[in-house]
Amino acid sequence: MAATAHFSTKDRILGAAEELFAQFGFTGTSLRQVTSRAAVNIAAVNYHFGSKENLVNEVFRRRMDDMSARRLAALNAAIEQSPGELEPILAAFVEPALAIAQDKHGGAAFVRMVARAYAEKNDSLRRFLSDHYGHVLREFAKAIAAAVPGLSKEELYWRLDFLAGALTYAMADFGMIKRPAGVTEAAHRERAARELIRFAAAGFKS
């Protein structure tokens, strides 16, 4: 029972922090707001996370660990099943991110939080993401380079950067094309993935 309560408190703090960071940003959210939303005291936050910086990192970790694992599994499958083909590699990068964005349990808040991370230029968070998830991007860069051998390293990373930006925009579902009436969220997400993969493939191959 104690272990369940322990996990529940930590999970409530993470959920509250994710919502508040998405709404007010990292600098605009205080630990007092987090404790109020999570219905815990400041000692609980300090016990589980130690600092606001660590709390920010852990909010990202609980989504990024899952997304990174899905991406790498899909990438390995793409390389094994479709060697030398670019589109399956891009699908392995795009589809897990869009799936997490559609998660009913905080997916939308996570997307807004990612946008906040871009806007606020949080150096500590960027170091954390680079240290813990940079290897995922490097694996994709290596796979894309093998599929499109004519690209220079500089061209490769420019285009990967543009792909990441376009993917974040697609995750936010903030574009001109909205989900039509009668089309399910899953079908709309699949269409978004197909179009983004086609667009990105043309960019890498040009």
Keywords for this structure?
2 domains, 0% strand, 206 residues, single chain, Tetracycline Repressor, domain 2, Arc Repressor Mutant, subunit A, globular, disordered N terminus, mainly alpha
What does this structure look like?
The protein has nine helices and no strands. It is mainly alpha-helical and 206 residues long. It has two domains: 7-50, Arc Repressor Mutant, subunit A (Orthogonal Bundle), CATH 1.10.10.60; 52-205, Tetracycline Repressor, domain 2. Residues 30-49 bind DNA.
Summarize the helices and strands and which ones pair or pack.
Elements: H1 2-24, H2 31-38, H3 42-49, H4 52-81, H5 86-101, H6 107-120, H7 123-147, H8 153-172, H9 185-205
Helix pairs in contact: 1-2, 1-4, 1-6, 4-5, 4-7, 5-7, 5-8, 5-9, 8-9
Keywords: DNA-binding
Pfam families: TetR_C_30, TetR_N
GO molecular function, one term: DNA-binding transcription factor activity
